[in-house]
Amino acid sequence: MAGASVPVLVALGLLGLVGGVGITAVGPGGVLPTIGLFALTGLTPAQVAGTALVTHVATGMLATAAYTRSGQLREPGTRRTALVLAVSAVAGTPLGVLVNSYVSKRMFGLVLGVFVAGVAGLVWFREHRRPAGSRAHPPTAVVAGMGCAVAVAAGVVGIGGPMLTVPLLVALGVPVLESLASAQAQSVVIAGVGTVGYLAQGAVDWPLAVLVGVPELAGVLLGWRIAHALPTRHLKYALITTLLALAPYLALHG
């Protein structure tokens, strides 16, 4: 962080803020700080993932508290889905951290670019496949398998669970707010377990984690209010456009 210019530091703080809004308003969004840490700093892939995951410990806890307060996590079906996702994350995240140690910077950029493009597609799919009515939560086995796969991916590139889990749950028929609530609880486990793994490698840049994480916390609260008060269609399309524009850059930047 010592060698970073003021514009870079400001850009990282803004990406943290916007990423926090995206986490609780639409699900994907936590990837933006990861993108910033990868593209704007000289951190290694392990440091990018470790530093990004540290910020998601606090954002996940705050978002979980917010969705508990608004009632979504008090609903039995949502609570069950959140619990299954959290338990599966305990198994999947360490594997992702292990895989990261074998990933070069070039490969990391390529993998991150593919994830970003894939998430943009999932968000678009979610927007164009609105469920007509109330839908049941998917079976436990399906949620567990999905949660484990998401946790592995999150551990590799340093993203929170909502980035992938929310679009996937909605695609399976879970209402948006319930999907957002379930994914926040999963994010706490992914971030906590992943942080322990990367701390063991000495791969966390604490000053950058604070620089990104504090604005991200403010964004989480703002995004939660947006999710409950305003239509988020324009925000979703802005996110899709941004992710699709960034995907090829990330793949080539590595």
UniProtKB/TrEMBL annotation:
The chain crosses the membrane at residues 48-68, 80-101, 107-125, 146-170, 206-227, 234-252. Keywords: Cell membrane, Membrane, Transmembrane, Transmembrane helix. Its main location: membrane. It is a multi-pass membrane protein. It comes from the Bacteria. Belongs to the 4-toluene sulfonate uptake permease (TSUP) (TC 2.A.102) family. This is Probable membrane transporter protein. It comes from Streptomyces rubrogriseus.
